[in-house]
């Protein structure tokens, strides 16, 4: 007899029974259901179960927060329900039938970037660390940095660029690989395609931006510029999807006996040619336009308004899953202007939502059961993962969520008005300061304090009235 048989039976009943389950899987802390009719699931009754720490619907999936015991609970549930569990990828595919076209596009974009996030985060931390030891003049009365007085740290600074360059300059390789992986086509072809976009024989994208004239491939009747697309996001995305569809087409028309030869040849060569003639220039133009518009919005006389709206609205974006689209904008800003002022606001939003939870911990300091959810959620938000805070606490009560949005908005206005820039995407929340450019660290710290104090105070004041404490 499993440990969670009783709770599993209750959950099955409140979720609409076996017949209402199209697919079920689990992740690190949550049960993920694709339901035939989501209206049959009783959120109120489910959230009364002692093991359940909250529920929410995202990307077409009804998700039940269980916590670290989710794997054991999942095994008991599928035994009680008599259903077969599926992988997260299969559940995601099934869930897309419940999503709008825009949601499906955003979900696909998120799934492309998700496998890249660990590398991008470590890359951001590396660049941030290099800033601290290489750019901040701590020594000899503020005249020298650590690398200027220590050969060891100078060597470390130089060595770490090897990793930073691999992550950010060669990002198109990761993107084209991730697209082929997600779409179920040949991943090595995706890697090769990405390499052709950043090959050393091409003129570096940064050199092109500075005005250098690129060499050309001369075909006699036409010439193609030999331009690299280092750190460019949109050209890689466009090229990746062209490769996928050309491979699928080639596989359909090719006899099975020679498909090993025909399919890669007919998919890869045309894609590389199209990428350098059409997709690269067009993608670069689109990316430059997006980054220019966003950067202009952030640096204009109305930048404070843009920041206030973005800071206020980012947490709701997390709920819908649309927040993943900011990754592409951040990466494009990094490539175009040498940093991003968008990502610091994301880190501040994480902090603000965590601070609202911190206030709820204080308000419920005598409620041990509530603290089992709120304390881990607060820590998680302060480290950049806000879903437990949002779905487990803040949305449950409502007013902490709004307080966090207000605090994020105010902090965002301070950040943008002070021209705070990050070198790259990094770990969100409080550790996010490591990714901030040295000259901006002081004002970012001020914005962090605001993101902590404003939501905390608002939540306490409103909570004492709402909860009648």
UniProtKB/TrEMBL annotation:
Key words of the record: Cell membrane, Kinase, Membrane, Phosphotransferase system, Sugar transport, Transferase, Transmembrane, Transmembrane helix, Transport
Taxon lineage: Bacteria, Bacillati, Bacillota, Clostridia, Eubacteriales
Name recorded for this polypeptide: PTS system trehalose-specific IIB component, Glc family /PTS system trehalose-specific IIC component, Glc family
PROSITE patterns with a match to the protein in the record: PTS_EIIB_TYPE_1, PTS_EIIB_TYPE_1_CYS, PTS_EIIC_TYPE_1
Gene Ontology terms: cellular component: plasma membrane
GO BP term (any one): phosphoenolpyruvate-dependent sugar phosphotransferase system
Species per Swiss-Prot/TrEMBL record: Clostridium gasigenes
A GO molecular-function descriptor: kinase activity
NCBIfam families attached to this UniProt entry: PRK11007.1, PTS-IIBC-Tre
